[in-house]
Amino acid sequence: MSPKQPGAVQAQSLNPQLELCLPDFLREQKMPLPSVEEMRELHACLEAWSKSLVCLRLSFADEHGQGEAPSELLWVYLPEAVERHIADAWQRSPTQGHLLHSLAQQLCRKAVGLVLPEAGVSGCAPLPGLTRAKTDLLRRFVAEFEHGGGAENKFVSSSAGLGRVYSILTYYPYAGDCARCALSESCPRLRHC
């Protein structure tokens, strides 16, 4: 990482070595075995998406200290091309669309679990509560960030989040459980405990 300038976001690319066994994944999904062509697509997607998954450690340069807001985050995401592929698959076959959607989610969860083993064990990666200033900084960073320079990875910052469907943003290092999560009021996991 380069030296921090006040009011900036720095990113360090992490490289988790993802390993996902398709037969185990399919067993977990409890769905009928896909056709040969669907299996080929699943396998091709697994290989391609494992390579295109981006895992960033984000650091905020904070000259004043923002109290409870974290100074480092982990952000894992799959590029927009994955979102488009899954949307197309839903149109062709809802079953295949669901499998690909689940695969994308699983890849993101696995990457977080590799970087933050505690999150993998607990099965939850708390969403950090960010100050307005840090949220604005992060959105500006996201709007400008292009992984690999390709247009397919360019972000569209949105008011609802960071502009990626298949992504996880959490504390780095792992910061505990539900008590630190910005979604604790609306989390379905907590409602059913």
How are strands sequenced across the largest beta sheet? 1-2-3-4
Shape: globular
Which secondary-structure class do the elements indicate? alpha+beta
Oligomer: single chain
Number of beta strands: 4
Tell me the β content: 5-15%
Number of helices: 7
Order of helices and strands: EHHEEHHHHEH
Uncertain parts = 146-160
CA radius of gyration is: 18 Å
Largest sheet: 4 strands, antiparallel
| Distance from first to last alpha carbon | 41 Å
Q: Mean pLDDT, rounded to whole units?
A: 81
Helical amount: 40-55%
Describe the secondary structure blueprint for this structure.
Blueprint: E1 9-14, H1 22-29, H2 36-52, E2 54-60, E3 72-77, H3 80-92, H4 94-115, H5 117-122, H6 132-144, E4 167-171, H7 188-191
Antiparallel strand pairs: 1-2, 2-3, 3-4
